[in-house]
Specification:
1 helix, mainly beta, globular, 13-stranded antiparallel beta sheet, 293 residues
Length: 293
């Protein structure tokens, strides 16, 4: 894995604070040879997946007395590719599974290129010294190109295609200081996730990328919490609930068949810490979570 990043900050850009970030990441994942044949045979193969991501983010921040406003754009270009090595079975079995010599290279998943562009705005307003509210909006558009796929020269040719996603996301929160050392807060936020499309496409020559779009999964999250910081003792607790519009349905070969029932996750967590001396801190953490599908 290689990661490179650069950041630029200007505190007086058109009467705003400007923050700009640019990053690049490339990584290869090569998996351990395995066999699904079982028994007395060692017909092994392993896959390799490579990802290249170029991302940027620019944000402008401006304060108007009690109001703070941040807005900007971000985006990325994500390129995914993969292949599969099939090993010489005779050499693998002769070595007892210790030596693997590549006999043939095959396609593993179709290539996926994703272009994303989003705009966002986030505001915070102080009602008074003890009470503030925050809210924001984000719109994200993603264009996905699925490459043509053929695992081997003798396997079926599976045409690729193009699909896209567009999501509007909101967040809202508030925090109130009960005392100088204790606060309560409540928040609502939305997020979305696209399942691993390379596990969904490239399975059948009759699959039409444009007509068989795999919908995104949208999640609404709620949280209420309380924290208190005393001289040597601090305590924090929260309860939360989230609802996801769907769950991913997998086949036995780990490919994605589609989306299934919604998912609910709720729970409570608490953390307690105490400074016994200037150099020794004691703590305890508890978390209870329930997932329902």
């Amino acid at each position: 894995r290689v990661m490179l990043s650069a950041a630029y900050t200007n505190d007086d850009f058109l009467n705003h604070q400007l923050i700009a970030e640019l990053s690049y990441r490339t990584e290869d994942h090569t998996f351990t040879p395995y066999t699904r044949a079982g028994g007395n045979t060692l017909s092994t193969n392993s896959s390799r997946q490579s990802t290249d991501v170029l991302a940027f983010r620019t944000a402008l921040n401006k304060s108007f007395n009690a109001l703070s406003l941040t807005y900007g754009v971000d985006g990325y270009i994500d390129q995914f590719d993969s292949d599969k090595a099939v090993y010489d079975q005779a050499k693998t079995e002769a070595s007892g599974g210790l030596v693997h010599i590549i006999d043939e290279m095959q396609g593993r998943y179709p290539g996926i290129d994703t272009d994303s562009l989003a705009g966002f705005v986030q505001a915070e307003y102080s009602i008074n010294e003890d009470w503030s509210i925050q809210g924001g909006y984000r719109y994200q558009y993603m264009d996905v190109n699925v490459a043509d796929f053929q695992a081997t020269s003798s396997s079926s040719f599976i045409p690729g295609g193009n699909t896209d996603y567009a999501e509007s996301l909101f967040n809202l929160g508030t925090i109130y200081a009960l005392t100088p050392s204790s606060q309560i807060w409540a928040s609502f936020s939305q997020g979305f996730d696209i399942p691993q499309l390379y596990r969904y496409y490239g399975r059948s020559a009759t699959q039409d990328v444009d007509a068989s779009k795999l919908e995104s999964i949208k999640t609404d999250s709620y949280e209420i919490g309380y924290r208190n910081d005393l001289d040597n003792l601090s305590f924090q607790s929260a309860i939360y609930y989230s609802y996801s519009s769907a769950t991913v349905q997998y086949e036995d070969d780990f490919s994605i068949n589609g989306l299934a029932d919604p998912k609910r996750v709720y729970g409570a967590e608490a953390q307690l810490s105490y400074w016994a001396t200037e150099a020794l801190q004691l703590g305890a953490f508890g978390h209870y979570v329930v997932t329902e599908i």
